[in-house]
Design brief:
Blueprint: E1 2-5, E2 14-20, E3 26-28, H1 37-47, E4 57-59, H2 65-68, H3 71-78, E5 84-87, H4 96-100, H5 106-115, H6 119-132, E6 143-145, E7 150-152, E8 157-162, E9 171-175, E10 180-184, H7 211-223, E11 229-232, H8 241-262, H9 274-277, H10 286-302, E12 306-310, E13 316-319
Helix pairs in contact: 7-8, 8-10
The structure holds zinc ion.
Length: 320
């Protein structure tokens, strides 16, 4: 396990990478490109007896920059051709085209308007998004993964498990022999992963994709596995996966209920619900808050407990 500090993101603790060293030497994830990150990775690799030239393949758990930021540099520094794999539904997130757009699209503008986010905050979110592209290099020649793909090594067998929800192309990687799961951001020990609402709808293979619905289904998928240890994308490993899955389900059920209550008396705009649902929200977390409320609303609508009563913009929702 290689742990890289994340300055400015204390809630995430660390960005974790994993090197499986029994040929082909396999790297899982690549931390973001903060000053000094590459040296941190190099010195931790060396402490295990590796150099960049030993890396033979890279598997990325999902297409967020804190998981692929350094991958392009590591490929170059290896001095040979290192294939880089990611699930096919997230491959576009690593593309030069998407990153140079500042990860912003017409879909983002439509989303902001329909959620009722004030222009000043929207512009701040846009600047923040544009800054994030400095933390990674694009990779256009990724190789697409699918559910059930298997990677073997001398002493390991990795099975790709598609676990959409945190992003449409999120995967977990199961090492059968040791009953170990590499969970990316689908499972984290110290915080509940955010089932991000997928804003770039025109990029989606499945236009009906709903993040939290998929996320909960992906939790069910993991409950079928026998797992003794989970190595997560951020923070510490954990051993009690069934216990954590139960707490995640309870957490989301409670939040769905809280949002239903907030909509009980009158139609509401998503942005206006933030003070009730997240009274302790930190600056720059407005986008996360809006996303989280919306994905719970999608559950309530699916269950017939809420409806979109005015498509806006801004969109208005009410409890039924
Ligand atoms: Zn992450």
């Amino acid at each position: 396990m290689i742990s890289v500090p994340l300055p400015g993101f204390p809630d995430l603790m660390t960005a974790n990478m994993y090197v499986l060293g029994s040929g082909p030497v396999t790297l899982i994830d690549s931390a973001p490109k903060f000053p000094g990150s590459l040296n941190t990775v190099q010195s931790q690799l060396e402490s295990f007896g590796f150099t960049f030239s030993d890396i033979e393949r890279i598997i990325i758990t999902h297409g967020h920059i804190d998981h692929f930021g350094l991958a392009s540099q590591i490929k170059s520094l290896s001095g040979h051709d290192v294939p880089c794999y990611i699930h096919e539904d997230d491959a576009w997130r690593l593309s030069r085209n998407y990153l140079e757009s500042g990860m912003w699209s017409e879909d983002s503008v439509t989303f902001i308007a329909s959620m009722g986010m004030p222009e000043e905050i929207a512009q701040r979110m846009k600047r923040r998004s544009a800054f994030f592209k400095n933390l990674c290099d694009p990779i256009d020649d990724v190789l697409p993964l699918q559910d059930g793909d298997v990677f073997t090594g001398e002493d390991f067998e990795l099975v790709i498990i598609h676990t959409p929800g945190h992003s449409p192309g999120s995967i977990c990687i199961y090492e059968k022999r040791r009953r170990v799961l590499f969970s990316g951001d689908h499972i984290l020990k110290h915080i509940t992963p955010n089932p991000f609402h997928e804003v770039h709808r025109s990029r989606l293979k499945d236009p009906t994709y709903k993040s939290l619905v998929s996320y909960l289904q992906s939790l069910d998928k993991l409950s079928q596995l026998c797992v003794e240890r989970v190595f997560t994308g951020h923070g510490d490993p954990l051993d009690d996966l069934p216990g954590l899955l139960a707490s995640y389900r309870q957490h989301h059920a409670q939040r769905t209920q809280d949002i239903w209550h907030a909509l009980e008396n009158r139609p509401r705009v998503v942005f206006d619900l933030i003070p009730e649902v997240f009274p302790l929200l930190k600056p720059d977390e407005e986008w996360l808050a809006v996303s989280e409320i919306l994905v719970h609303l999608e559950i309530l609508i699916d269950e017939g407990r809420a409806e979109l009563c005015d498509s806006g913009p801004p969109a208005m929702f009410q409890a039924l």
